[in-house]
Design goal:
The complex is a heterotrimer of chains A (445), B (246) and C (290). Chain A has helices spanning 3-24, 28-53, 61-86, 95-117, 122-141, 166-189, 192-202, 204-209, 214-233, 236-240, 245-248, 251-264, 270-289, 292-309, 317-320, 322-325, 333-361, 367-377, 379-392, 408-419, 439-444; strands spanning 152-153, 242-243. Chain A has 445 residues and is mainly alpha-helical. Chain A folds into 2 domains: 3-318, ABC transporter involved in vitamin B12 uptake, BtuC (Orthogonal Bundle), CATH 1.10.3470; 323-437, no CATH class. Chain A has a two-stranded antiparallel ribbon with strand order 1-2. In chain A, helix 3 (61-86) crosses helix 4 (95-117) and helix 12 crosses helix 13 (270-289). With 290 residues, chain C is an all-alpha fold. Chain C has 12 helices and 2 strands. In chain C, strands 1-2 form a two-stranded antiparallel sheet. Classes of the chains: A mainly alpha (445), B alpha/beta (246), C mainly alpha (290). The interface between A and C is large, with 51 and 47 residues.
C-alpha cells in the first residue's frame, strides 16, 4: 500500500472510530478507559521508533510524557500570570496548541539528552534516560508555579469545542494523536530514514562505514520519539484534573511503553498497536478486579517472559514457533497428542497448582487470576493446531467455526481433531506430516 | 611525486598506557595494490580503524587525495571515497541482501555533494548488479544468516564497493577460507583494482598477499619495519625476526 | 561560625555516606564495569536485602548486619541463577543490548512491585542498639547508625579488592573482564567465571541492603533513587577500578550531603543523576565502545 493511501485509510478509520463511538456509546467509562488505551498506543508507537527501529532503549518515557503534561500546565496558567503581572489579556490557550507546544518542548528535551549521551554506547543512553526521569521529576517537585510536590488542580472547561462532553473531546483528540503516531511510524518504516535507523540497530559501526550519519539519525529518532510522547502527555492535566509529580512520572508509563512494543513486536508499527490494545485493555479491566500493584506485576512478568522467550513479540510468534502459532500446513494425530495436548494438560495443571499456592501464601498476589490468564493465552495455539489437523483431514480451517454450535459442534470438532487420522500422502494443504508410521508402511496402507 | 591517494605522517594511537601505533608514515600510490602484514597484535586493524575514522588517532596526520582527514568521522570519510570491509563480517541482519547494498547507495553515493542522485529504479538495478559481480544475485532476497562464510565476505566487499570508493581497505577478508574461496575473493579484488580502485590488503595468508600485492608494508608491535616490493620486504632481516623469532 | 559547623558536619556525614555508597556500588562495578552486564535491577536486590534484614529483625530480633552477612550465600546462589537465565536468553544468542536491558528493567520492576504487594508502601525500619546514639568529637557528630555501616562497607570493599587481586578465581574474573578468549585458552570457562562474578555482585546486595535499612527507613520505591547513584559512581570511578569507585563514592556522598544540608533534601536525588549526565557528556574516555 502506498504511503499516501495508508494515511487516507488511517484517517478514515480514526474519524469513523470517533464518530461511531460517539453515536453508539454513551457509557462515560468507555471514554475514560479508551483514552488511556489510546494514550498507550501513542506512547508505545513513539517508544518503538527509537527502541524497535533504531535499537536504543528509553526508560525515561515518564520524563517526556510529564514534560508534555507540565508544559500544558504552564500554558494553562499563562493567561492569569500575564494578566496579574503585566496587565495583558490573552484568551485561554486551546488544547490543540498545547499539544503542539508539548511536543516541541519534549522534542527539545529528547534532542538535548541525545546530544549529551548518544555518542556513547547504547547502554549509557538507557541509563541516562533513567537519570533524566529523576532529574526532571526533581525539577518539577521544586517548582512551585506548577504546584511542586503538592500538585495542582486543573479545572476542565465547561464546554468542549465540539458537541458532547469534555471527556469525549479528549478521547477524540487522543484518537487523532494515535492516527498521527501510527502514520509517522509507518512512513518512517518505509523511508530512507527508516532504513538508516534499521542499519544503526543492526550494526552501528557498519552503518557508519557505509556512509550513514549515525549521530544525526539517532538525534532525529530521539527527537521524534520524545515529541510524540510529549504530545501524548499534553492533554493529561485535563484528563486527571489533579496533577502531581508522582502520578505523572509514574513508573507504570515507563514499563508499559517498553512492555507493549516488546510483547506486540518491535519490527513494525503493528506490534506496538497490538501490544497497547491488548495490554492496555487487560490493565483497564484488571484494575477493577485486582489492585493496581498486582496489575503492574503482571505487566512486569509478561515483559520478562516475552523478552526471554519470544523476543520478536506476538507478531513474530508465527515465524518463531509455527507449530503452535501458524495456521498453515498440517499436523498429524500423533503430533497433536504428543506435542500438544498432553504437554498442555501437564502445564495447565502445574500453572493452576502454582497459582493456588501463590494465592495461599501471598494473598496480595492473585495467583489464580494469573493461572486463568494463562488459560486465555492458550486459545490461539489451540485454534492454530486444530486448524492444522483440519487441514490434515483435507478440510479448510473455517471448519473451526463448527465448534461454536452448542454441544454437538464441540464434540464434532474434538473427534475430528483428536480422534480421526488424516489423509495419507500429500493433500491441498501440504505434504503428509509425521505420523510415527514409517513411510513405506504408510504408502502400502 | 607520483599521485599519492593516501599520505599518512607520524600517526600514533594509544589505549591508556598501551602504545598500539607509533610514528607510522605511509604513502599509498593511486592504483596500486598494497599489502599490509604483521604478526597478531601488531596494530594492522588499529591502523585501518584510525584511517577510516572508527578510532581517533592522537598524533599524526592523514591526507586523502590531498585533503586532510583529521577530525572527520567515519561516514564523512566514506563519503570522500575511503571504504573498508570488516575483519568479522558485519552485515545488517534484519535486511535482505538487496537492502544491505541499498544502504551505502542511499547514504554515500546519493549524499555526495556535486554527485549524481540516483533514482529508486537505478538504485534497484545497481543493487542487483553489485550482487551479481560477487555471484550473490540468486540470494538477493535472502537474509545474511542464510549465507555461507565466503558469501558473507563477498557481501561485505560488495557493500564496501557500493560506496564507489577510490581506496578500499580489505581487512582480513580471507581468514578461515578454503583455497578456492581465497582465489574467488582475490579475483574480485583484482577486478576492482583493474577498474581503478586502489586496494590495501590486510592479510595473514602469505601466499595471497605475495601474489596480489605490488608493494608490501610490514607492521610489528605498532611500528613500520619494512616498506617495498614484496620480495624485498620479506627478505628484510627484521621481518624474518618478527615472524620466526630470534 | 554556625555555617562552619554545618559545613564540617555535612562533610563528615558525606564521608560516612560515601563509605556506604561504596558498598552499594561495588556490585555494579563487578557486573557492569567488569562483566559488561548492565544490571539495572541491582537496586531491587539491595531492597531485598533491606527487607530480609527487616523480617529477621522484626520476628527474631536479629541484628541487621548479621542477617546481611548470613544471607550472602543465598544471594550468591540467586545471583548465579539470574546470570544463568540471562545467559540462556541473551548472551548465548548474542542478542542486542536492548533486550538484555529490557530484561533487567522488567526484573527491577517486578522486584519493586512484589515488595509492595508483600510489605506495602509504608516505611519500614529496624531496631538495634546503635541506631540513635552518636559519638561526639568537639563540634563533629558521628551518628553510630552511619558510622558502623561505613566501617563495615569499607571492610567489605577492601576484602573484595583483596579477593579479586589475590585469589585464583578473583584474578580470573579480572581476566575475563578484559579478554574472554584469553581466559578460554587458560582452560577456564568464561561462563562459569562470569556466573561466579555475577553471584558475588548480587551477594554484596545482601549486606548493602542491611546497611541501608540501618541508615534510613525504607520503602520499595527508594530503589529508583539508587540506580542513578550506583551507575554514576561506577562510571565516575572509571568502570573497572574498585579504588576508583571508592573515591567516586566518597565524592558523591560529600556532594549530596552538602547539597542536602544547604539546599534541602528534595534536591538530593537529582545530584547523583545530574552528576551522571554531566560525566557521560564530558568524560568519554573509556566509555566509547570496548
Amino acid at each position: 500500500m502506498r504511503n499516501s493511501v495508508f494515511w487516507a485509510v488511517l484517517l478514515a478509520v480514526g474519524l469513523a472510530f470517533i464518530v461511531l463511538s460517539r453515536v453508539l456509546i454513551a457509557n462515560e467509562y468507555f471514554y475514560f478507559a479508551g483514552y488511556v488505551v489510546l494514550e498507550y498506543i501513542v506512547l508505545s508507537t513513539a517508544w518503538n521508533i527509537l527502541g524497535g527501529y533504531t535499537g536504543y532503549t528509553n526508560f525515561g518515557t515518564g520524563a517526556f510524557f510529564a514534560t508534555g503534561a507540565y508544559s500544558s500546565v504552564v500554558l494553562h496558567k499563562l493567561p492569569l500570570l500575564l494578566h496579574t503581572h503585566f496587565g495583558l489579556t490573552i484568551p485561554p490557550v486551546p488544547l490543540p496548541l498545547m499539544i503542539v507546544v508539548g511536543g516541541i518542548v519534549s522534542g527539545l528535551v529528547g534532542l538535548g539528552t541525545g546530544y549529551l549521551t548518544l555518542r556513547l554506547r547504547g547502554v549509557f543512553f538507557a541509563i541516562a534516560t533513567l537519570a533524566l526521569s529523576i532529574v526532571v521529576q526533581t525539577l518539577i517537585v521544586n517548582w512551585d508555579f506548577v504546584g511542586g510536590s503538592r500538585g495542582i488542580y486543573i479545572i476542565r472547561p465547561a464546554l468542549a469545542p465540539i458537541t458532547g462532553g469534555y471527556i469525549q473531546y479528549l478521547f477524540s483528540l487522543m484518537t487523532l494523536l494515535a492516527v498521527i503516531a501510527i502514520g509517522i511510524a509507518r512512513s518512517i518504516e518505509r523511508s530512507r530514514l527508516g532504513l538508516g535507523f534499521h542499519a544503526i540497530r543492526d550494526d552501528e559501526l557498519a552503518a557508519e562505514a557505509s556512509g550513514v550519519p549515525t549521530l544525526n539519525l539517532k538525534l532525529i529518532s530521539t527527537t521524534i520519539s520524545g515529541a510524540l510522547m510529549g504530545m501524548a502527555g499534553a492533554p493529561l492535566p485535563y484528563y486527571v484534573t489533579y496533577l502531581d509529580p508522582t502520578s505523572s512520572f509514574n513508573l507504570a508509563y515507563a514499563v508499559n511503553s517498553v512492555a507493549m512494543p516488546v510483547i506486540g513486536g518491535m519490527t513494525s508499527w503493528v506490534g506496538p498497536l497490538i501490544g497497547a490494545i491488548l495490554l492496555g485493555t487487560i490493565q483497564q479491566l484488571a484494575t477493577v478486579m485486582i489492585s493496581s500493584a498486582a496489575n503492574l506485576l503482571i505487566v512486569g512478568l509478561l515483559l520478562i517472559a516475552f523478552v526471554t522467550l519470544a523476543p520478536n513479540g506476538l507478531i513474530g510468534l508465527r515465524r518463531q514457533n509455527p507449530f503452535l502459532f501458524s495456521f498453515q500446513g498440517r499436523v498429524s494425530r500423533r503430533q497433536i497428542w504428543l506435542q500438544f495436548l498432553l504437554p498442555l494438560i501437564g502445564i495447565v495443571i502445574a500453572v493452576n497448582i502454582a497459582g493456588a499456592l501463590v494465592q495461599v501464601f501471598f494473598p496480595a498476589i492473585p495467583g489464580l487470576v494469573l493461572a486463568q490468564l494463562f488459560a486465555i493465552a492458550t486459545i490461539w495455539p489451540q485454534l492454530a493446531v486444530c486448524a492444522k489437523r483440519l487441514h490434515d483431514r483435507g478440510r479448510s480451517a473455517w471448519f473451526l467455526l463448527v465448534g461454536l454450535i452448542p454441544a454437538v459442534g464441540g464434540v464434532w470438532l474434538f473427534v475430528e481433531c483428536y480422534c480421526l487420522s488424516g489423509n495419507s500422502g500429500a493433500n491441498a494443504y501440504g505434504p503428509a506430516p509425521d505420523t510415527g508410521v514409517p513411510a513405506a508402511l504408510a504408502q502400502a496402507a | 611525486m607520483a599521485d599519492q591517494i593516501l599520505t599518512v605522517s607520524g600517526l600514533g594511537k594509544r589505549f591508556g598506557g598501551f602504545v598500539a601505533l607509533e610514528g607510522i608514515d605511509l604513502a599509498v600510490e593511486r592504483g596500486e595494490r598494497l599489502g599490509l602484514i604483521g604478526p597478531n597484535g601488531s596494530g594492522k586493524s588499529t591502523l585501518v580503524n584510525c584511517l577510516c575514522g572508527t578510532l581517533h588517532n592522537e598524533t599524526g596526520s592523514v591526507l586523502f587525495e590531498g585533503k586532510p582527514l583529521d577530525g572527520l568521522i567515519a561516514h564523512e570519510r566514506t563519503r570522500l571515497g575511503l571504504a573498508r570491509s570488516f575483519q568479522l563480517p558485519k552485515p545488517f541482519h534484519s535486511m535482505d541482501l538487496v537492502d544491505n547494498i541499498r544502504i551505502p547507495l542511499l547514504y554515500t553515493v546519493n549524499a555526495r555533494r556535486g554527485g549524481h542522485r540516483l533514482t529508486a529504479a537505478t538504485i534497484a538495478e545497481r543493487c542487483e548488479e553489485l550482487l551479481g559481480h560477487v555471484n550473490l544475485a540468486d540470494k538477493a532476497r535472502r537474509r545474511p544468516r542464510d549465507l555461507t562464510q565466503v558469501e558473507m565476505r563477498k557481501l561485505e566487499l560488495a557493500r564496501a564497493v557500493a560506496t564507489e570508493p577510490r581506496l578500499l581497505f580489505a581487512d582480513e577478508a580471507m581468514a578461515g577460507l578454503s583455497h578456492s574461496e581465497i582465489e574467488e575473493i582475490l579475483a574480485v579484488l583484482m577486478r576492482l583494482n583493474e577498474e581503478g580502485i586502489t586496494i590495501v590488503l590486510i592479510e595473514h595468508i602469505m601466499s595471497a598477499v605475495m601474489s596480489f600485492s605490488t608493494r608490501l608494508v610490514v607492521l610489528v608491535a605498532g611500528h613500520k619495519i619494512a616498506d617495498g616490493p614484496p620480495q624485498e620486504a620479506i627478505r628484510n632481516p627484521e621481518v624474518e625476526k618478527a615472524y620466526l623469532g630470534e | 561560625m554556625i555555617q562552619l559547623n554545618l559545613l564540617i558536619n555535612a562533610l563528615v556525614s558525606g564521608i560516612l555516606l560515601g563509605g556506604f555508597y561504596a558498598a552499594v556500588s561495588v556490585g555494579i562495578t563487578i557486573s557492569f564495569g567488569m562483566l559488561d552486564i548492565a544490571n539495572i535491577s541491582q537496586p531491587a536486590f539491595i531492597l531485598l536485602g533491606c527487607y530480609a534484614a527487616y523480617v529477621t529483625n522484626l520476628y527474631f530480633g536479629l541484628d541487621p548486619i548479621l542477617t546481611g552477612i548470613v544471607m550472602m550465600p543465598l544471594f550468591f546462589v540467586l545471583g548465579m541463577a539470574v546470570y544463568r537465565l540471562y545467559f540462556f536468553a541473551f548472551e548465548r544468542r548474542g542478542e542486542q543490548a536492548i533486550q538484555g536491558l529490557a530484561f533487567f528493567f522488567g526484573l527491577l520492576f517486578v522486584g519493586e512491585v512484589s515488595l509492595v504487594l508483600a510489605f506495602g508502601v509504608d516505611y519500614r525500619f529496624v531496631s538495634a542498639g546503635y541506631i540513635g546514639p552518636s559519638l561526639h568529637f568537639g563540634i563533629i557528630e558521628l551518628p553510630l547508625r552511619m558510622l558502623l555501616p561505613c566501617v563495615f562497607s569499607l571492610l567489605m570493599v577492601g576484602l573484595l579488592q583483596l579477593y579479586l587481586t589475590r585469589s585464583f578465581i578473583g584474578r580470573a574474573i579480572l581476566a575475563v573482564s578484559q579478554d574472554g578468549l584469553a581466559l578460554q585458552l587458560m582452560a577456564a570457562s568464561p561462563k562459569k567465571i562470569k556466573q561466579i562474578a555475577f553471584g558475588i555482585s548480587i551477594a554484596t546486595c545482601s549486606v548493602a541492603g542491611s546497611f541501608l535499612i540501618i541508615i534510613q527507613p525504607v520503602e520499595p520505591s527508594i530503589g529508583r533513587d539508587y540506580i542513578g547513584r550506583i551507575f554514576a559512581i561506577c562510571v565516575l570511578g572509571g568502570m573497572t577500578s574498585i579504588p576508583g569507585m571508592l573515591v567516586a563514592a566518597m565524592l558523591l556522598g560529600i556532594v549530596e550531603s552538602i547539597t542536602s544540608t544547604f539546599y534541602g533534601p528534595s534536591w538530593s536525588p537529582a545530584v547523583a543523576f545530574g552528576l551522571l549526565l554531566v560525566t557521560l557528556a564530558v568524560r568519554p574516555a573509556g566509555l566509547l565502545g570496548r
